[in-house]
Write a structure and sequence with these properties.
Strand order of the largest sheet: 6-9-5-10-12
Number of domains: 1
Shape: globular
Number of helices: 4
Radius of gyration: 19 Å
Strand content: 35-45%
Largest sheet: 5 strands, mixed
Mean pLDDT: 86
Structural class: alpha+beta
Order of helices and strands: EEEEEHEEEEHHEEHE
Number of strands: 12
Distance between the termini: 30 Å
Low-confidence stretches: 1-22
Length: 161
Amino acid sequence: MGVCDYNLRFGWKADVAGGKNVAMTELHKTAASLRFFGDDLDPDEIAGVLGGQPTVGVRKGGLWLTSLGAEKIAYKGQWRLTVEERSPGDLDGQIAELFATLTTDLAVWNDLSHRFQADVFCGLFLNEFNEGISLSPETLTAVGSRGLSLDMDIYGPGDDD
């Protein structure tokens, strides 16, 4: 690796030439959404069984508005719940917030995750090279036990937010 040897698991990078450990910078900003997609998805059904209303809920072919106010036609049915972005990044907190008001019945979650494309989408926004974030075992268990994928998009320094 040249001058630096990176150990992301433990959150530090070693300056091999200088012989010292330097703390990895925390992630600048994170975004998180719970998402379900499917051709036959009924947003009212999802809301009913999960016990919460989506940020965006639309049937296939229906109209919805983006966060910037643009009108779009849904190519698939969608149910999306989004929480506020956090800076510095805090995916553990955001994912806990997504699940906090919804059912804890794992049978409901697993039924939905088998019928629809289902994930927790995370946007990771870096301000500089080698920022990092970890997810706790509790967060990973909460996502996995619900049958959800973890989908991450990483935006480097200089990418538009």
